[in-house]
């Protein structure tokens, strides 16, 4: 790998006015040190991606761009969600950079891990995943659900890096190949392993959020997890089919049992059991229809092939 590659750090932002100044301060120190140590090219930059923020995030980004040549930004035409905003930033940054690192704006991702990512990149890795070494700062509920999610995804056969979110390094050629992935329903942390190429991990300890509120409350986390599951695995459909077969076998067993009891002259009364069974199977059917409907809905979204993001302004072009 050629030394002093052009690095772009892509950071999606949604209502991040409280953290941008501090994020800029810390990243400026880090980028200037990397340039001074000749680990990256002086042409390297940090690219903020405004995801249709409702506060002054975009105005702050433009002011930072005017004052600091190390910083640039793009803004989407409207809010499209974290994954789409991140994709928009990556696809834009690959036009200017040799290597791109994506991270969040809240300073929870340890910026010192960038050094290790670059070392592995120069050693020949095209993808380097930032992986949390521990979840000591998470609440018990967040830790259990997050770790359970990764284990569940693995059980479903999804190639997903354990305890990795969206803090990663990717080379330009990886993003060139990634641009051929046309999915509308995005789950980037599950998509990048599909690209292939040599990869490695860098472990880091996640910090507390510097300021502001999390952009992933419980409801969004559950939706995000469900999107990941249904985007990469058909096993939920197979589980429904398997349960259907199991139900049929149980029903046949009860039918045989009732016939035997009738032959033996004993009445088989199961009114309560029948009522419970009807309610139970009705619930199972509704859940099954919901799961099938989710997959049909995703097919509907994919067939429309609408743009995943629209960039309304790019400060690099000014």
Describe this structure in words.
This protein has 318 residues and is of the alpha/beta class. The protein has a single domain (7-232, 306-317), classed as Spore Coat Polysaccharide Biosynthesis Protein SpsA, Chain A. The chain has helices spanning 20-36, 57-67, 82-93, 113-122, 140-155, 172-178, 188-195, 218-232, 235-263, 271-304; strands at 7-13, 45-50, 71-76, 99-102, 127-132, 164-171, 199-204, 311-314.
Summary tags:
single chain; 318 residues; Spore Coat Polysaccharide Biosynthesis Protein SpsA, Chain A; alpha/beta
Put the structure in a nutshell.
The protein is α/β, with parallel strands linked by helices and 318 residues long.
List the helices and strands and how they pair.
Layout lengths: L6 E7 L6 H17 L8 E6 L6 H11 L3 E6 L5 H12 L5 E4 L10 H10 L4 E6 L7 H16 L8 E8 H7 L9 H8 L3 E6 L13 H15 L2 H29 L7 H34 L6 E4 L4
Parallel strand pairs: 1-2, 1-4, 2-3, 5-7
Antiparallel strand pairs: 3-8, 4-6, 5-6
**Assembly annotation:** single chain
Task: Determine the mean pLDDT.
Answer: 79
| Helical/strand content category | alpha/beta
Taking Cα atoms only, what radius of gyration do you get, to the nearest Å? 25 Å
**How many β strands by DSSP?**
8
Task: State the CATH topology.
Answer: Spore Coat Polysaccharide Biosynthesis Protein SpsA, Chain A
CATH architecture annotation name: Alpha-Beta Complex
What is the number of independent domains?
1
Name the CATH class: Alpha Beta
